[in-house]
């Protein structure tokens, strides 16, 4: 009997010990992070020190090299590169969550051009000091980095839409210059398709799947017919005649086959593949296509047979929507001076040149577009600069996710012929007014 | 030794006949005779000591389980309560004069729920609810029929059995995200599916083709799961039953209806229940294969994800809570209506197990039969 009791007591003690250990572990887990945070606050006493840089996947490895160079020069202000997922919505989710809980985990944030407003309005990022010069940076890119007139981030990488066209087919059809208007483009298509070798090709491809790319393509069409999705005061203006002309052109192009029906499922990559296999004469896409469609390993059938031009418009050359990334300082980081210095370093002429050379990311420094050596290596730079000069940033809406979804909801059914453009735009105007008004 | 085995089926024999149906039949017989199963040559034990040992064991068990329960409370209980709380609040969305979001969340009572049912978000919620239900019914029916067929083929195949099983299991082994991208490629406007059909169906555009694309991809992926669980049930059916039925003149169809189906029912029900719970939460396939903005495939999970991504945490939590309730109701109804055996089996078995464990300390000194 006594033996049973001893065994029981031992096991009870063991059980209690296990319980206590679990509790201690949990407590330790909780307090561990706190302790870490405190040391980083007290460490140094200035706002210089180690920081982290959160940005989408560094696919080329160029970024890590630049970070390494910075770290070698600044041993006490080391930067840790924190790679976020490659998909933009997954990046946004992580950055938002960190802002929501006021986490100091990320110091410098790589923000897509459409996110600045939301991050600024939620006070997740600090304004950039007024002393920071923006001269030498693309004006449209600087505009995308502002919220209500205040600079909240620094343009780092940019992107503009280009019209890729089959120069060989144009020459064969006796067309000397690429089209500058939609009507010219359609007329060129008719001439080209009259030739036997291009009979089966379709005229135009863009990004018309129901996702963010559709917002880009719709905004470009509206801008290219002289309208705006939002006016200078942030009020939606999609019920204007210009916007109606734009959407009607898009819907009609689907109806008459200028844009093939399957384009309703096209994102950037689908369009690129169709263009590379010679199925499309004109395509709206980003500069990254240049290198891939010029590959000589047999993956592209149009190597050396295409060129780029600014996007066409209603009456004259059209206007592109701006893409790219801006850099901002988190409101919750301890070492803000280091963060700002690091942003200056990354957006310097040298860093942006290195980025262009290694990863073909378009720089925000205008001087680089004039560089003869770079122009030789990247023949599309001149065309891209032209596109960027007339480019317009997407709306700076605090609730950008809702705005984007509303535009997609209105435009997509109009393209597939399920609603008529005027009705779609009228209800879109109501929805956007509701989303951007101050309750 | 011989005598004992002949007289009473020892508890240890049970797992051998572990098809639930048969096990259940033997149970009453076993439980009444369990005390008699105590080995001979054992001394009588005082009753108080048994009780004390029993009580001690129970307390020790509770204590040893408590870390697990604590962890469960942390990882399951806390998020549930937190989501429930979150669904009663809304995050500030208004802007002040300088354009800053007026921060903080405010209590809105049940407004997130009433909005979901009848309010501004009504059409989106009911659309997602309808899609979730549609996918649940179509995929589970298709998967059960195809999975059952797969199990019968795997069971009967003689040559290349291992190869067949492995190949049927491949879709199940592929991560859903990967299979989503794979099927996206198949259902491309110029993809394999359209090539085979000789038409150009826009599978990933918004509309009915998108719904069927999701159903096909999901069935392809998870029918093997049902097949495998059913196969486990099939292999436990003693061959004698079929032989006896054949002797009695039953044809293949009658043998399938009267022997195979009833005996694999418990395994099949578990598989179907798992699938039901899984498909009600479907997220990755519509998201990757078609796209999260397309209403024709938006499930409740996708809707909740989209809302949370746009910082509408209150409505997102409300959708998640409603989905949770939906899953609970479906699972409960399923178990109540079809799967009564599942719980009944568990209930009758527990006392037997407890008694067995209670007698264990007496092993070696228990009363002779």
From TrEMBL, chain A:
It comes from the Bacteria. The keyword Signal applies. The keyword Signal applies. GO terms for cellular component: ATP-binding cassette (ABC) transporter complex, substrate-binding subunit-containing. One of its GO terms (molecular function) is maltose binding. Keywords: Signal, Transport. InterPro entries: SBP. Belongs to the bacterial solute-binding protein 1 family. This is ABC transporter substrate-binding protein. It comes from Streptomyces malaysiensis subsp. samsunensis. The lineage of its organism: Bacteria, Bacillati, Actinomycetota, Actinomycetes, Kitasatosporales.
């Amino acid at each position: 009997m006594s033996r049973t009791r001893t065994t029981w007591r031992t096991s009870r003690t063991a059980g209690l010990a296990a319980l206590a250990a679990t509790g201690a572990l949990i407590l330790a887990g909780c307090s561990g992070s706190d302790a870490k945070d405190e040391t980083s606050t007290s460490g140094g006493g200035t706002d210089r020190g180690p920081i982290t840089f959160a940005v989408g996947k560094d696919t080329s490895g160029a970024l890590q090299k630049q970070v390494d160079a910075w770290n070698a020069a600044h041993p006490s202000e080391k930067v840790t590169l924190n790679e976020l997922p490659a998909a933009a919505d997954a990046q946004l989710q992580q950055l938002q969550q960190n802002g929501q809980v006021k986490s100091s985990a990320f110091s410098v944030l790589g923000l897509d051009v459409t996110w600045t407003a939301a991050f600024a309005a939620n006070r997740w990022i600090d304004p950039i000091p007024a002393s920071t010069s923006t001269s030498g940076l693309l004006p449209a890119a600087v505009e995308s980095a502002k919220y209500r007139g205040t600079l909240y981030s620094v343009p780092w990488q940019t992107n503009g839409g280009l019209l890729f066209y089959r120069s060989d087919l144009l020459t064969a059809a006796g067309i000397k210059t690429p089209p500058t208007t939609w009507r010219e483009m359609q007329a060129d298509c008719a001439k080209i398709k009259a030739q036997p070798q291009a009979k089966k090709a379709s005229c135009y491809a863009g990004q018309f799947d129901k996702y963010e790319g559709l917002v880009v393509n719709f905004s470009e069409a509206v801008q290219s017919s002289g309208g705006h999705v939002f006016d200078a005061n942030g009020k939606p203006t999609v019920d204007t005649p210009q916007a109606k002309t734009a959407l009607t052109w898009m819907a009609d192009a689907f109806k008459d086959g200028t844009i093939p029906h399957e384009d309703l499922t096209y994102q950037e990559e689908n369009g690129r593949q169709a263009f590379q296999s010679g199925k499309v004469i004109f395509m709206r896409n980003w500069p990254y296509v240049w290198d891939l469609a010029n590959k000589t390993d047999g993956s592209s059938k149009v190597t050396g047979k295409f060129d780029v031009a600014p996007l066409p418009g209603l009456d004259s050359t059209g206007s592109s929507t701006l893409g790219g990334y801006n850099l901002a300082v988190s409101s919750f980081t301890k070492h803000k001076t280091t963060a700002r210095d690091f942003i200056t370093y990354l957006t310097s002429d040298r860093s942006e040149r290195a980025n262009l050379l290694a990863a073909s990311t378009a720089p925000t420094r205008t001087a680089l577009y004039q560089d003869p050596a770079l122009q030789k290596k990247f023949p599309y730079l001149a065309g891209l600069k032209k596109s960027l000069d007339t480019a317009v940033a997407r709306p700076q809406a605090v609730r950008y996710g809702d705005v984007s979804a509303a535009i997609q909801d209105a435009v997509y059914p109009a393209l597939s012929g399920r609603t008529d453009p005027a009705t779609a735009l009228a209800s879109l105007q109501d929805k956007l007014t509701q989303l951007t008004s101050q309750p | 030794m011989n005598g004992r085995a002949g007289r009473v089926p020892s508890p240890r024999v049970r797992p051998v006949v572990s098809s639930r149906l048969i096990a259940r039949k033997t149970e009453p017989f076993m439980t009444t005779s369990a005390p008699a199963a105590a080995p001979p040559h054992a001394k009588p034990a005082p009753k108080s000591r048994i009780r004390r040992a029993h009580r001690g064991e129970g307390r020790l068990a509770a204590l040893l389980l408590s870390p697990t329960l604590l962890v469960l409370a942390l990882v399951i209980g806390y998020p549930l309560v937190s989501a429930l709380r979150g669904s009663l609040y809304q995050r500030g969305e208004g802007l002040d004069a300088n354009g800053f979001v007026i921060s903080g969340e405010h209590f809105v009572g049940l407004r997130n729920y009433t909005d979901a049912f009848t309010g501004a978000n009504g059409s989106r919620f009911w659309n997602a609810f309808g899609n979730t239900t549609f996918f649940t019914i179509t995929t589970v029916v298709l998967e059960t029929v195809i999975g059952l067929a797969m199990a019968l083929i795997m069971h009967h195949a003689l040559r290349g059995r291992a190869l067949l099983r492995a190949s049927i299991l491949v879709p199940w082994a592929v991560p859903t995200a990967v299979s989503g991208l794979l099927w996206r490629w198949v259902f491309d406007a110029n993809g394999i599916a359209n090539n085979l059909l000789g038409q150009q169906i826009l599978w990933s555009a918004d509309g009915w083709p998108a719904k069927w694309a999701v159903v096909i991809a999901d069935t392809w992926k998870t029918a093997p799961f049902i097949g495998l669980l059913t196969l486990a049930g099939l292999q436990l059916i003693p061959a004698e039953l079929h032989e006896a039925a054949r002797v009695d003149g039953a044809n293949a169809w009658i043998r399938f209806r009267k022997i195979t189906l009833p005996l694999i029912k418990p395994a099949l029900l578990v598989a179907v229940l798992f699938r039901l719970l899984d498909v009600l939460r479907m997220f990755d396939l519509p998201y990757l294969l078609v796209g999260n903005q397309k209403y024709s495939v938006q499930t409740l999970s996708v809707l909740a994800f989209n809302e949370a991504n746009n910082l509408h945490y209150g409505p997102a939590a409300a959708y998640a809570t409603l989905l949770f309730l939906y899953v609970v109701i479906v699972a409960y109804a399923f178990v109540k209506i079809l799967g009564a055996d599942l719980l009944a089996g568990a209930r009758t078995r527990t006392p037997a197990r407890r008694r067995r464990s209670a007698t264990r300390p007496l092993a070696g000194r228990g009363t002779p039969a």
